[in-house]
């Protein structure tokens, strides 16, 4: 089987993470996964949402958006429509949950970290690129807090990265570009830790179904790919910083 | 291990489906899963969304809501807030996708079936109860179209039902009630067909992660439970109607 | 004259009130008036709206909604539209005013009682059924406060119930079902107390007018019907509770 | 009993109607009822709402608003809040219904008349002043259609005017100013035709109730007052125009 | 060149300012500039926006709206649309900035003055008429504070007035009526003080451009016209009050 | 006088324009003016707004937004707030007007060009950078239409660029960065053509005023700076393309 861009089924697109892409944010990256490009910024604020007030715990949340021409056909802005769409809400809830899964919220203290993931160009896999990039932006912001003496160490227990897998013409493939995504019978987003545990699995058959065996093959592909992406994250963060994660 | 309501880990709560609960809808049920109660109505309209105009295909979509006192503490109405929350959007997208997975949209013709799932009382598992109930309401509505000669046969290839599974204190359990849901480290919603294929898997660790082995045990539990729920659906639909499904 | 459902002009449809329909609400009923079905829940909260802060008084308010298939043709959800319609606002203001007319707000103390009236099935008279049912739900909630020692007695001076009357083909009739409502030249909603005093009269000629004499005949019909409805309320509340009302 | 502004119980405030107050509208008046001042404009458009398309009938509708300093304390604009309040919706629905009651919608043809009632200064009775003024503005606009040969005659069967009545310290009074309105136990708005038939009666006890006898005394007061207001309307419209009404 | 209403290029329309047009507002005027009519009210409140809390400074802000039939064709209400348009926001921001330019916000103290400018009839120049009128309403309100001993003197350093200028068929003209505005290649709104300093210049070529020389001729026209308008303002305010301005 | 970043009063920050920054848009640039960075994309669609339907003319419009961390303190998304702020509306209207001033809308035909200006990082002058960049993106998109034979030539009569000028501590300066902007008494945005004609002048004194002489000095500064910016635009567009502009 030949993929549209010549990749092998198990081959990721190139992943490039540029740290400190924004001069104002406490942490930031530009992440590129093939032609998909997302700016991720991490903002640290000394406040928590109402439901956490006075509990001595922090919070991690995310917002996601696409520029109108991130896509082939111009998308109407959600600010102009006056409301967020279901897809946007679903994605930003996913990013937030994924990052919270490895965060020690007590150790973070009464702070909120907001990850803004703004898609500059979309060629499939924007939500998984957002998770992978937002994780790095978050660690950069936390490291700043450590350097400023606000935190003793980075209160994160493991790496987090994500990718998509799917079945196209019966073949399980990884990291679907937009053209593949549109053609896939089954589409699965997988978020995993650096030690290979699952954080989130969202497998869905749009007008199709899948067997347990197919699911297992997709998870094998995802696990291998996420392991590769972790290496890119480690490189950007540097040995010292990467080592600090998980040593809570 | 003792569950809060005395059930065994693999034991479902009683599932009761009352058909034709509403005198106006083309199909309707009241589904009760323990203390969770959802009214599901199926509306058939001779129109399709703009993106399907002129393609000769139909559409299946869903809306989900909770009455203010479906919950222990009164929830503010989304109509009063002026917008749908992220959770609501996520759930109604899930229900729609699940039902479309077994529907032959070409055979349905230029019609839209809207499944309204209104939670009267919520004790955990409202989204999976909605899927299970909405499937039956949809079949009842389709059967009416067959009886009226609008369709030759029910254009559905398999049964659809759903349940939740999760890990509580390290033990995988099925069909979590609200108190269990709040305590679960991992929460997974599984939608399957009558022939045991997956339609949707949404596994998520809120401030936690899970291993591949744990995932497998959860899927085993879900598969067995959904098989049981299918029996309730078949009973409500009756032999003849149940037999008609999948004979496309 | 023959009414569409065979009733006599002065004959109400059967009124059935099922108390404690919801396991979470402080008070709740399912009220059925013919095929009209409304779930009414009463929520008690220890707070008051801003305009009453610090005045030592309580408040009673109501919200009203219809499920999409409460009606013959599916109604778009107001949550999806992003705003409440004029009819909804008018009705929920009416229900609130009606219940406040017999409530001793000082004796209630700094509490708000919210009556949620959700129409499951609509066959005319949903607003008057809501008032009749909400009154019972409110008394059940207040009784719980008395039993818990939060209130000395039920701070309500009289029963409240409502019905509709109208003129069809020149004949005054009571408790119009949907088909009659659509055909009526004059439509009047009447809210009265158990001792026969008026709380609210809303008479309106849609593309028609009515004489003083016609109005008097409508009010006679309404008074007799409301007296009957009061008997159903008394039966549901039980002798002891019914007796407690008005003994402030 | 002494009323706050020295009037007798049955005495109206001076009613002044200035026709053609706006140079653009097809019909317009400034109506002053004491210190209450409302600009009413009638707009004629060659279109009807969707539910009337192709039925050969017209429509009459109304919108109502208050300038921020129409009131003693500045009111936040509904445009700034982003939604209409319940009171506004209730009032504009009332005005529309009242005017439609005497309009021959078939004779009007496929046209919509929109009455905009903007309260410049509010001292009680703004909704009834709006109805009284909007009726005159509507007739002026219809007369223009007659003069232009678009209509054969004014398709209105009777005069429409409105006033408020209420009970203050046990005394029934007419045309309550703001200070009286706030003190009234019972408040009733009455809309009547020039021949003394009712169009709308909205009587309401806010935290109070009223007897049938009290209601009768209020309606007597209202009927006499509306008869007086009709004279002002006739004077503004002139003999010829006033005569044309009701000769359909 | 002949202007549509017979004026000379440098000739203003008659400016009439009626003070105390509203009985509730702390300051109010009706300003008429030809057929353009705006009600301006000034509301004084003892509070400031959040960004000024605790700084001992006050604020001046403005809101602007048009009645639906202020215009030849009925405009849909922004309250009905649920949001303010860009033009409205632009104008109300302009009015607020213009008035703040001469206000000593420290001397005003922790108070907010809100200028509501409601256009009753629009025939061009509504934003500049609003500024001219709102200035007078504001001074009237401030004078009331002085009279009540809340302020020692009027904390305003100069008069403020505004007019429009534009180029029609190559000829610079002042105070464009609606028909001229629609035909103008260049449109400029100028706000100036009584001593001839600029507060705001907004010159714009809609589908056109203009030279520096043209701009200079427009500013000469505007300066002369605003000087005339200042005389009307002084007359309305009276010698004593006019003298008080600028004597901070 | 020493500016905060060491520039001379008449010195611009470096302007860098990267063309074809986005792979989907018909035209696109990344424009950097010092630390201010804006992505401008031009979308061509074969449709026009309702008010131009059937007139054989095209339209040019713009939308403007800032990423949440474009600024030092995180800004809440307008999509989350559910409405556009006044500043956003004002800016996007300005950008649209500026570009339309040199466009031959008849020659464009029934097409709409939408310029999306998304601020990635904001350090003052975002609206003027947006205009300068959007102009280049628009020419790139128009050139594509020419190359595809859809247009005979680029229907634009002149270059468009913009900058800000202001008065800080009494000294007129050009191209204010954020720190200067906050300190300026007068702030003026100037849009000019390549041949030195004005398109838009927006000069405003926030809590200050300015003399005619000061205005003249600001306009001199702006004219010189815009001339420099035009050179950068010409370089990006290349000799051939730059020459094509204005040869309509």
Automatic annotation (TrEMBL), chains A, B, C, D, E, F:
This is Ribonuclease PH. The lineage of its organism: Bacteria, Bacillati, Bacillota, Clostridia, Eubacteriales. Keywords: Nucleotidyltransferase, RNA-binding, rRNA processing, Transferase, tRNA processing, tRNA-binding. Residues 11-141, 158-224 form the Exoribonuclease phosphorolytic domain. It catalyses: tRNA(n+1) + phosphate = tRNA(n) + a ribonucleoside 5'-diphosphate. Phosphorolytic 3'-5' exoribonuclease that plays an important role in tRNA 3'-end maturation. Removes nucleotide residues following the 3'-CCA terminus of tRNAs; can also add nucleotides to the ends of RNA molecules by using nucleoside diphosphates as substrates, but this may not be physiologically important. Probably plays a role in initiation of 16S rRNA degradation (leading to ribosome degradation) during starvation. Belongs to the RNase PH family. The gene is rph. GO terms for biological process: rRNA 3'-end processing; rRNA catabolic process; tRNA processing. Gene3D superfamilies: GHMP Kinase, N-terminal domain. It comes from the Bacteria. Homohexameric ring arranged as a trimer of dimers. One of its GO terms (molecular function) is tRNA binding. NCBIfam families: RNasePH (TIGR01966). Phosphate binds at residues 87, 125-127. Its EC number is 2.7.7.56. It holds the Pfam family RNase_PH. Signal peptide: none annotated. It comes from Desulforamulus hydrothermalis Lam5 = DSM 18033.
């Amino acid at each position: 089987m030949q993929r549209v861009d010549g990749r092998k089924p198990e081959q990721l697109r190139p992943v490039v993470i540029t740290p400190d892409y924004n001069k104002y944010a406490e942490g930031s990256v530009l992440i590129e996964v093939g032609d998909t490009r997302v700016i991720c910024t991490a903002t640290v604020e000394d406040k928590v949402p109402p439901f956490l007030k006075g509990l001595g715990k922090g919070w991690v949340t995310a917002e996601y958006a696409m520029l109108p021409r991130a896509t082939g056909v111009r998308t109407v802005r959600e600010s102009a429509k006056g409301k967020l769409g279901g897809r946007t809400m679903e994605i930003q809830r996913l990013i937030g949950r994924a990052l919270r899964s490895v965060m020690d919220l007590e150790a973070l203290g009464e702070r909120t970290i907001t990850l803004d993931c703004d898609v500059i160009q979309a060629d499939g896999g924007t939500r998984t690129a957002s998770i992978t990039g937002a994780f790095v932006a978050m660690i950069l912001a936390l490291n700043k807090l450590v350097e400023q003496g606000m935190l003793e160490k980075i209160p994160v227990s493991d790496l987090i990265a994500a990718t998509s897998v799917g079945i196209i013409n019966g073949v399980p493939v990884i990291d679907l570009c937009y053209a593949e995504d549109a053609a896939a019978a089954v589409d699965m987003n997988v978020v995993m830790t650096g030690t290979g545990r699952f954080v989130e699995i969202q497998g869905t058959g749009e007008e199709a179904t899948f067997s347990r065996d197919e699911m297992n093959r997709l998870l094998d592909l995802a696990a291998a790919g996420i392991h590769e992406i972790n290496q890119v994250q480690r490189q950007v963060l540097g040995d010292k910083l990467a080592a600090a994660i998980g040593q809570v």
